Amino acid sequence: MPRQPQLTSRLQRFGTTIFTEMSALSLRHDAVNLGQGFPDFDAPAALTEAAQRAIGEGRNQYAPGNGIPSLRRAVAGHAARHHGLDYDPDTEVTVTTGATEAIFCTLNALCDIGDEVVLIEPFYDVHRVATSMAGAVARGVPLRAAEDGGWRLDEDDLRAATSRATRVIVINAPMNPLGKTFSLDELGAVVRVAEEVDAVILSDEVYEHLVFDGAHRSVCHVTGGMDRTVRISSAAKTFSVTGWKVGWACAPPAITDALRAAKQWTTFTSGTPFQHAVADALGWDGSYFEPMAADYLRRRDLLCEALDDIGFGVTVPDGTFFVACDIRPLGFDDDLDLCRRMPAEIGVGAIPTQVFHEDPSAHHGLVRFAFCKTDEALAEGIERLRSGLPGMARPDDR
Ligand code: GLN
After folding, report:
1. From the CB of 24, is ligand 1 less than 6 Å away?
2. Residues 289, 136: contact at Cβ < 8 Å?
3. Does the domain at residues 18-43+287-397 carry the CATH identifier 3.90.1150.10?
């Protein structure tokens, strides 16, 4: 008898991702899936046609490991035009298989066993699991309640989570699952603290084009930020192609060398025809990006107003396509329990946020809804919440 497979301790505690669990529940109960963050509408035709053309033209073999030159140039050009950030496409830009691989490679390239990674909570689960897979130790920094009803990063909290073992500080800006954008003061604090302990900053900016409160802000906009930051993004959210898995990492040459060393041993290279298509799209002008963001703003307002009306405690997000809302005003107390019950009981899928904390027991009560969904799906989801929630059993009833 072969020895039974035994998941390592690095992975065992994480189980199945919450996105898979909740999407499966939605599917099983034919629920409106306002959980997992993928658009339920198609990508721009010009983009899908470009990928089809690339396949037809025979661009089907390995791309260069670091990415095709035209995409690396397009990533650098896009960062310069949209954010005023300058990268050398040859030495500072690496194409990856989605932002996820960029995160994985960065942490695996930079962390030795026992090094520490600081994560702002609620974190995106991949940041947490990639930390453990790299053999590093996670240090969580929960955001605090802000006076305006949102959340704020406290510089002293961040500092207290660091030590001489800190190798990387991770920030997700705009932030999934809260939809928070960070102020330049908060971003300045991240750079200051990183400098104090000489840590690298991993800045996951996949929602860079879904910003509703002015221009996108990055740690790279703060003095000193560019020198120590791996700026990660992808095509998924910007172009509604979450299934293509085209991402990239921009970083100073020494850090780029390190993450390229890891990338060659993970996927080696990333989907060639998709790289060609995204290289085109990144060069599109404002007539794509601005209406796209305006349309998400419209969906945000539609969903937030309805959730508020239904009785959730809504903090209107400044970025991303998510809104995290408080279920306690409605008489519920456990977001995980509610999200596990909703698909079967009222036909709506959502994502609980307690699972995005080192200590989930301290963080009950926030549920994340996605608005990257058609107007029909949003309307149906809202209707089901409105009519179904009042009849759901509350903790006091059970
Ligand atoms: N990023 C997506 C979300 O937050 C999900 C990605 C995934 O399913 N792993 O909903």
Report:
1. no
2. no
3. yes
